[in-house]
Amino acid sequence: MKRKYAMITGISELAPIKDPAGQKTLALLAEAARLAIADAGLHNTQIDGLLVTPPSEDSAFMWPAQVCEYLQIRPSLLNMVELGGASAVGAVSRAALLVKAGLVKNCLCLSGGVWDSQVFNTLQGKKSVMSQAEIDFELPYQPLGFNTGYALIAHRHMHLYGTTPEQMAKVAVDQRKSALLNPLALFNQAPLTVDQVLQSPLITDPLHLLEIVRPCSGAAAVVVSNERGASLHDSVSILGWGEAFSHNSIVYAEEITTSPVKESAHRAFGMAGCEPADIDLLSLYDCYPITVLITLEDAGFCAKGEGGIFVTQHDLSYQGDRPCNTHGGQLSMGQASFAGGMSHVIEAVRQLRGEAGERQVARNHLAFVNGNGGVMSTESSLILGRTEYV
Fold this sequence. Notes:
There is one protein chain. By secondary structure, this protein is an alpha/beta fold. The protein has 2 domains: 6-115 and 217-237, Peroxisomal Thiolase, Chain A, domain 1 (3-Layer(aba) Sandwich), CATH 3.40.47; 126-215 and 239-386, 3-Layer(aba) Sandwich (Peroxisomal Thiolase, Chain A, domain 1), CATH 3.40.47. It contains 13 helices and 13 strands. The protein has helices at residues 25-39, 63-71, 87-100, 123-128, 132-137, 146-161, 165-179, 194-199, 261-272, 289-298, 307-313, 329-333, 339-353, and strands at 6-13, 49-52, 77-80, 106-113, 202-204, 207-208, 215-216, 218-225, 236-245, 281-284, 335-336, 366-373, 378-386. A 9-stranded mixed beta sheet has the order 3-2-4-8-1-9-13-12-10, sandwiched between helices. A two-stranded antiparallel sheet has the order 5-6. The protein has a two-stranded parallel ribbon with strand order 7-11. The protein starts with 5 loop residues before the first strand and ends with a strand. The mean pLDDT is 93.
């Protein structure tokens, strides 16, 4: 008898927008929730669990309750998940736990918000994502938000392993090829070349403008259920998950080129009973290309230090031999607040359902999804599979 898995039965994603034009987080979340619940073939009265990421411009006090009241749902279990960029994947993992434990039948995982494009570029923006220790002891030295941390990681990786700017730029180039076929992507108008990436303005050495994710606004939702129900789509099973943490501030990381993905992916693969070689599709958090390289290494898709060589030797586009971020990734999709991380889950589900249209991958049995919080601080990994395959 096959094991019974929690299943993703509904998904939705709003097109990321640069200018929210007065829209509020609750309104975006409500639309994403409506679409995902309908996609699952459910009514909002059937949602008995809610996991939501934090708001961006609203008060976080009793936030899950605020969302429930706005959506007019009455779940028996509700909570907020805050793991930075790992929040969306973490919410899906927690929903799977709740469903498998029999505590809920249909759990809505909701993420998104309204973000100013300068959210991390102002003093207040920097403080909003820093601990008090970071504010007291690091901010006086004027770091440039997340850009500084990932620039340090990229420099260190280049020093230790000979990684080149061209190798990192290729990640953005391959993902843009896929984004051209994604009508929701923020940047889907023109292809990229490695030269264009490296000739774009240098923001924080060695990171160029076209290697840095674009904050924007939007929302996305996933419904995790104990059975397919009335959904008209092929269901996708959540086969394994894992989380890990190594530091909050990068100052306390033992080695900045090794991430907690090493532990989170190992746990996910162990639970799912598969290996990196079995995976057909990669959906990796990509706030910067160096994040993709290190995730490939630490999740076991290549040896440590060979991430640059790996992306050079493989085509990461939807047509390639190692498809990765076939929606364009956040580098081309845009980072719609916490929904940026959810976009990786949703693209994996689309591909496993066979609903990715022109960018559909040839083989779609298993997908590895990863969320990354902070400066490679907290990692959350998922193994998803077509239910009929598992």
